[in-house]
Design a protein that fits this description.
Layout lengths: L3 E8 L5 H16 L4 E8 L6 E8 L2 H12 L2 H6 L4 E7 L1
Antiparallel strand pairs: 1-3, 1-4, 2-3
Length: about 90
């Protein structure tokens, strides 16, 4: 089973930016600490503060799925669930 790579963008409304920023550091810290996380980066777009970019690499599909399960039940998952995402997932 190979690595899983996910990259893309999430976009929020202008009145949600501060909430996303307030949760972002904890989300990144928890994600990076997960078993099988090889890389997890999340950053706010410099030109469009409503857009957030993500780049993540997990050791296996199982590790990636465990990450997704954790995120869905987290504060980050609950707050950002409705936000549009344009993600690409690939196996390596």
């Amino acid at each position: 089973m190979g690595k899983v790579l996910l990259t893309g963008t999430m976009r929020c409304d202008a009145d949600e930016v501060e909430t996303v920023l307030a949760l972002m550091d904890k989300h990144v810290r928890l994600s990076q600490a997960e078993p099988g996380c090889l890389q997890f980066e999340l950053w706010q777009d410099e030109l469009d503060p409503r857009s957030f970019h993500v780049s993540e690499v997990f050791r296996s599909e199982r590790d990636f799925e465990a990450h997704q399960d954790r995120v869905h039940s987290s504060d980050w998952g609950r707050v950002t669930r409705h936000m549009p995402r344009d993600f690409t997932k690939n196996a390596a």
